[in-house]
Structures are given as structure tokens and as C-alpha cells.
Write a structure and sequence with these properties.
Elements lengths: L4 H8 L10 E3 L4 E4 L4 E4 L18 E17 L2 E15 L8 H7 L11 E12 L2 E12 L8 E11 L5 E8 L7 E6 L6 E6 L2 E6 L6 E8 L7 E9 L2 E6 L7 E7 L7 E3 L6 H10 L1 E5 L3 E5 L7 E6 L8 E2 L15 E2 L9 E7 L2 E7 L2 H4 L5 E8 L5 E7 L2 E4 L7 H4 L1 H9 L4 E5 L3 E7 L1 H6 L1 H21 L1 H8 L2 E6 L5 H15 L3 E4 L5 H7 L1 H14 L3 E6 L1 H13 L12 H14 L7 E6 L17 E4 L3 H9 L6 H24 L16
Parallel strand pairs: 1-4, 30-31, 30-32, 32-33, 33-34
Antiparallel strand pairs: 2-8, 3-7, 4-5, 5-8, 6-7, 6-9, 9-10, 11-12, 12-15, 13-14, 13-16, 16-17, 18-19, 19-22, 20-21, 20-23, 23-24, 25-26, 25-29, 26-27, 28-29
Helix pairs in contact: 10-16, 11-12, 12-14, 15-16
Length: 685
């Protein structure tokens, strides 16, 4: 990560202006020695194989101390990486066994030298570096003149430039000679981390916190770092002091990077890209990506960042279904975004489409120039495979696969195999693509569709005849349904169990020739209009159509009636947001008081929940039934003059009773129910 010196100074100390990191231009590693020594850096890295410790044949050079320094390796003036410079201090280890024996001295240095005064001591020094995820080993050859060889004394140092590392990384260094004469020299160092910038998430927001001194003036830029092309600036501002910048999660992309630099002449800029692995950023990238097809045979994938995706050609049939992949495949490795690419086609066809997938998931699809080529065509795509000696085979691409022509399969292509082969040979098919081994052809199917119109019309006539017979068969049933009487159920919402009981009754009544209205099925209209307005509208419609209003009495409904009769309008306020019963009393009671209720209202209560005497006397001017014991009479009254014969009515009553009984049993068994077992409210009639 490129890092400017002033940010490193923030990480290393409190005085940003004291520290200035040295810049190294170019990517090459180098080595240099202290005066009196000569050194050479081997090209490329070597294997890190320390081997076993061996006895020194005489004086040898060994590393005695490792020293590090942070520098900047710059590829360009404003593109620098943090780098670790290593200095290896060397000393002479061992003594001369035979000081006057030049041969022994030569074995430690150079056997061809005959005079000790011209001899030198040579060593191969290995320097190993580890900083996750990087591991390297380099080899340095060092020579020291014999005149400087003093056992046990330092002879100088060799400096290696340099190992690249990231801020905050733990660096481990080892150094030894080949062969190894002593234990490896090692050093572990923690590189400073930058406390000046942190990225944190808070729900849908992302916070960029810049922790610098109040006097520090710096520039901040957000940009899209595109590998394929120049960077695109998105946001830039000059700031002073600590800052907290908020980004919405929809602004995140994998290539969104942050660049910071001091507002000083020739300052170095640093950039970090913290969202490369963020799942939200990758989802946003695909949402922003657009696939464009450019006539005559071009295509382009537009996106803010580079994408690892696979692009393929496919054939889209007009009947829907998945787009079937074709050869030839398009380039998939790092599809170049924002660049026009060419499709390897001889001719365009509206059924040809381009798909872009990532990790085997379809992300984008666009068919070829629908505006200019028109809608999808009902053409058959033939795949030609060419073999040796001019042998070729043909198959037709269908949803079930590629069907060989002239086969016995029960598909459209197999049935029309001979005709399609003749069309291909007579030049009626359009060649879309070819190479040495394969070719693609699109053959029109319009004429074969026209030949089958007679069968289609015959099938339509047959279907119309069947529908007409069904209409005659269902005529009586339709008339009966047209005469179905409307019924409006009113009840007081006791609890959820009682509401389920009312819902079971309403559903069972709907199976009869009755059109049932109940507030349980109209909660949205009830909330929008209010209980009173909803009841007025339903009551007016029901009575205008000759229907009946059913009052379902329960302990709560009886209590509301007594309150209203005693206190008048003050008791008529709704008891809940959906309590149509409480809202309806202001209209229902006047009908009973003025004698307009008979023929328009019917009362009912459930066995075990209420005594018949509990129903207020005012409401006994209309028939009041106990359910389910008096279901046949109740159903006959609801259906009015159009009620079926008694036998048929009894069967329907049994059906309603079977549907009603489980819900009623559940209400009766509920603890604390005023009409529950042992409460003395079961109707004795």
C-alpha cells in the first residue's frame, strides 16, 4: 500500500515534521557494503535451507547483528510502498590454526592465492524475510581483505534494499552463512500501524474517521481504482484536523479507494481500498453494472470496477424458459469493462443473447439489438458438427437438449427433420457462426406454423363445443347462484376464539347459495372507512338486494345492547377499531323500535354460550335461533322463499354443523369463558 512519509511519522512519533523516509526509485533489489568490503547480490530469490552447523576450518565471516530501517520504494513519484532496509553487521569467527599455512587460509577464502597479503576471506550470507503473506530469501556474497581479518572483531556491514511490507505487519528476519558455522541470527519487529484512518460500519452507514492533529491540513479524495483504465475521481476535498465522514452503504464498491496527502509541495499520496472484500460492495457493483449491445456486432459491459465474470452467447426461444448456452464462448477471465468487444458472429439474430455470469450465477442478460432486429422469432437453431472426410451431423437446439435431425424423438424438430434438412440445403437458413469444426444456423418455422392452423381451428371448435355443453349442464346451478340471497353477519368481537367461530359459520354459509358479508373479511375497508360507515354501506346494499341482517348474540353483544338501551347514544361508541356490532346499534335499534325489523333481521346465538332468555326482549320480535341445534330452521329463514326441500335442507344443515362444531368446542373449552362448562349458560331448550 503506498504510504507517504508524513503518515508514517504520525504512526511512529508525535513530531510529524521530524521524520522523513528515504525514497528508493525503481523496483530492483540492491546491496551495498561498508568501505573495505566487496559484496554481490544474487539474482532472484533462493531456497531457505539453513542446514546443520559445521565446524569452521579457520577464520570465517558470520553475521553478528541485524538492523532495520523503514524506507519508501517508489515506482513513480507519487506511487510508493513501505519497504524494510536490512543492515547485516559481520565479524570474523575462529582463529588461524596454522597462521603461516597459506593453503588453509586459501580454503577459507581463495585457494588460488599464494600470498596472505593478497588473500581475502569470503562468505555467502543468507537473509530470510517473513511478513504474512510474503516470504523471501536472498543470497549475498561478501569478501573482506586478509589485512582486515582480526578474529572476534567486526569487519563492517552489508546493506540490503529492501523487503516490501505493509503497515502494522509483523516482520521476522533470519541471517546465517552457507555453510552455517553458528546459530541463526534472528530479529522480530512490529511495523507501526496507522492510527490516523479507520473504517467502521453503523447499520447502513459507513464511517471514515481521520484522526490527525487539528493543525494538520490534508487533502482527501474518494475514487474508483480501475485496473483496466485510469482511476475515476468521485469526491475530493481539502480538510483540516480530525474528521468523521459518513458514506451510505449504496455508495460502496470493491474498487472504492481513499487517498490522503498533506497539503504541502511535492507531497506523497497514500491510498487504501478497504471494501475489496465487502459483500455489500460486490452486490452494489452488480446492481450498477450494465450490459450494452452495440450494432453491428459489438458488446460492452459498463461498471464502476473491474469484474471477474464469464460472458457467453445463448439462444432465447420466444416461448420463455432459460437462455441456452452456445458456442463459441466469449472471453471470461476478467471481462474488460467499459470497453467495446466484438461478437464472433457472421450475422445477427434477435434470439441471440449475451449472458454475464459470476461464480456460476447469472447476473446480466441482453438480447441482440431488440430495437432494430425486432421481437424474438420462432426459428429453429441447428448446430452443425463437422468431422473428417466432409462428414457432418446436425441437431436442433430445443429445451430438452440438442435433438438429432431424422431421429424418432417426439419433438417438433424430430417431426420436421426432413423439412429442416431440405431448408438448410436450399439456402433458406441463416448462418450465424462457424469455425473449422462447427456452425450455427437459424431456420424459419413460420411456414410450418401456418400449415397447422387448420388443426388449431379444429381444436378451438372442439373446445368451444365442450364449453357450450358445460354451460348447458351448469345452467341450473348458475341460475341458482344468481338467485343467492345476501346475508350480513353482525357480532361483537369477544376474543380470537369467538372470531374463529364466526369465521367458521361464515365460511360454511358461503357453501350454500348465500352471499355472506362479515367484517372479518373486510378489515382493510373497515380500517379505511370506519366501522359505522362500513356497516351503513353493507346494510343498505344487503337490504336493497332483499337480503337479511344476522345478529349473532353473545354475552358481550347482550351487554352492549343493554348499555345502549339504558344510556342511549353515549353507549354507542365503537369498542374497538373493527367492532362493527357496536357501531351498528345506532341503526339497528331504531329498526326494532319502529317495527321495521321483521323480514329484514334474524337473530342467532351459539349453544352453550348464551341462554335464549338472555337475548333482550326487543330483539325477539324477529326469529332467534340456537346454533347448531336449530340450524335447519335458521338456514331456511336465511334462504327465504328459494330454500330447498326439507330433505336437502337437512343435509346442508349437517354440513354446516360439522364445519361449526370444532370451533364451538374450542370456545367452550377455553378457560374463563363465560359460556364455558360449569358456567350454567348452556341453553336448555
Amino acid at each position: 500500500m503506498p504510504v507517504p512519509w508524513f503518515l508514517l511519522s504520525l504512526a511512529l512519533g508525535r513530531s510529524p515534521m521530524v521524520l522523513s523516509l528515504e525514497k528508493l526509485m525503481g523496483p530492483q533489489d540492491t546491496a551495498r557494503c561498508s568501505p573495505g568490503l566487496s559484496c554481490h547480490l544474487w539474482d532472484g530469490d533462493v531456497l531457505c535451507l539453513p542446514g546443520s552447523i559445521v565446524s569452521a576450518p579457520g577464520p570465517v565471516l558470520v553475521p553478528t547483528r541485524l538492523q532495520t530501517e523503514l524506507v519508501l520504494r517508489c515506482h513513480q513519484e507519487t506511487d510508493c510502498d513501505l519497504c524494510v532496509r536490512v543492515a547485516i553487521h559481520l565479524a570474523v569467527h575462529g582463529h588461524w590454526k596454522e597462521p603461516k599455512d597459506e593453503a588453509k587460509f586459501g580454503r577459507a577464502a581463495d585457494p588460488e592465492l599464494e600470498e596472505p597479503v593478497n588473500a581475502f576471506l569470503q562468505a555467502q550470507v543468507v537473509l530470510s524475510f517473513q511478513a504474512y503473506p510474503t516470504a523471501r530469501c536472498v543470497l549475498l556474497e561478501v569478501q573482506v581483505p586478509a589485512a582486515l581479518v582480526q578474529p572476534g572483531q567486526s569487519v563492517g556491514s552489508v546493506v540490503f534494499d529492501c523487503f516490501e511490507a505493509a503497515l502494522g505487519a509483523e516482520v521476522r528476519l533470519w541471517s546465517y552463512t552457507q555453510p552455517r558455522y553458528q546459530k541463526e541470527l534472528n530479529l522480530t519487529q512490529q511495523l507501526p500501524a496507522l492510527p490516523w484512518l479507520s473504517v467502521s460500519a453503523d447499520g447502513d452507514d459507513v464511517h471514515l474517521v481521520l484522526d490527525v492533529s487539528e493543525e494538520q491540513h490534508f487533502g482527501l479524495s474518494l475514487y474508483w481504482n480501475q485496473i483496466q483504465g485510469p482511476t475515476k475521481p468521485w469526491w475530493h476535498k481539502n480538510l483540516t484536523g480530525p474528521r468523521n465522514i459518513t458514506l451510505n452503504h449504496t455508495d460502496l464498491f470493491p474498487c472504492l479507494c481513499i487517498q490522503v496527502w498533506p497539503l504541502e509541495p511535492d507531497s506523497v499520496r497514500t491510498s487504501i481500498c478497504p471494501f475489496t472484500e465487502d459483500p455489500r460492495a460486490h452486490r452494489n457493483l452488480w446492481r450498477a453494472a450494465r450490459l450494452r449491445l452495440l450494432p453491428p456486432r459489438g458488446w460492452q459491459l459498463n461498471a464502476p470496477c473491474s469484474l471477474l465474470a464469464e460472458a457467453t452467447l445463448c439462444w432465447q426461444a420466444p416461448g420463455g424458459g432459460p437462455c441456452q448456452s452456445l458456442v463459441p464462448p466469449l472471453s471470461w477471465a476478467n471481462v474488460t469493462v467499459n470497453k467495446t468487444l466484438e461478437l464472433p458472429l457472421l450475422n445477427a439474430h434477435p434470439n441471440l443473447c449475451v449472458q454475464v455470469s459470476s461464480w456460476e450465477k447469472l447476473q446480466l442478460q441482453q438480447c441482440l439489438w431488440a430495437d432494430s432486429l425486432g421481437a424474438l422469432k420462432d426459428d429453429m437453431l441447428l448446430v452443425e458438427t463437422r468431422g473428417p472426410q466432409d462428414n457432418r451431423s446436425l441437431c436442433a437446439l430445443e429445451p430438452s437438449g440438442c435433438t438429432p435431425l431424422l431421429s424418432r424423438a417426439s419433438t417438433r424438430a424430430a417431426r420436421l427433420g426432413e423439412e429442416l434438412l431440405q431448408d438448410l440445403q436450399s439456402g433458406q437458413c441463416l448462418q450465424l457462426w462457424e469455425d473449422d469444426l462447427r456452425a450455427l444456423w437459424a431456420c424459419p418455422m413460420d411456414k410450418y406454423v401456418h400449415q397447422r392452423w387448420a388443426l388449431v381451428w379444429l381444436a378451438c371448435l372442439l373446445l368451444a363445443s365442450v364449453l357450450f355443453l358445460l354451460f348447458l349442464f351448469k345452467k341450473d346451478h348458475v341460475k341458482a347462484a344468481a338467485r343467492a340471497r345476501a346475508a350480513l353477519l353482525l357480532y361483537s368481537a369477544e376474543d380470537s376464539g369467538f372470531e374463529r367461530l364466526v369465521g367458521a359459520l361464515a365460511s360454511a354459509l358461503c357453501q350454500l347459495p348465500l352471499r355472506v358479508a362479515v367484517d372479518l373479511w373486510s378489515r382493510r375497508e373497515l380500517s379505511a372507512q370506519g366501522p359505522l360507515a362500513w356497516f351503513h354501506a353493507q346494510r343498505r346494499q344487503t337490504l336493497q338486494e332483499g337480503g337479511v341482517v344476522v345478529l349473532l348474540f353473545s354475552p358481550g353483544a347482550v351487554a352492549l345492547c343493554h348499555e345502549w338501551l339504558q344510556d342511549g347514544a353515549s353507549a354507542s361508541a365503537p369498542h374497538g377499531p373493527h367492532d362493527a356490532f357496536a357501531a351498528s346499534l345506532s341503526c339497528v335499534l331504531p329498526d326494532f323500535l319502529q317495527g321495521r325489523a321483521p323480514g329484514r333481521y334474524v337473530g342467532a346465538y351459539f349453544d352453550g354460550l348464551l341462554h335464549s332468555e338472555a337475548v333482550p326482549a326487543l330483539f325477539r320480535s324477529v326469529p332467534v335461533f340456537s346454533l347448531p341445534s336449530q340450524l335447519p330452521d335458521f338456514l331456511g329463514t336465511l334462504q327465504g322463499p328459494g330454500a330447498p326441500r326439507p330433505g336437502r335442507l337437512g343435509q346442508r344443515a349437517k354440513q354446516v354443523s360439522r364445519a361449526l362444531q370444532p370451533a364451538l368446542d374450542q370456545v367452550l373449552k377455553a378457560p374463563g369463558n363465560p359460556g364455558g362448562p360449569g358456567d350454567g349458560t348452556r341453553d336448555g331448550t
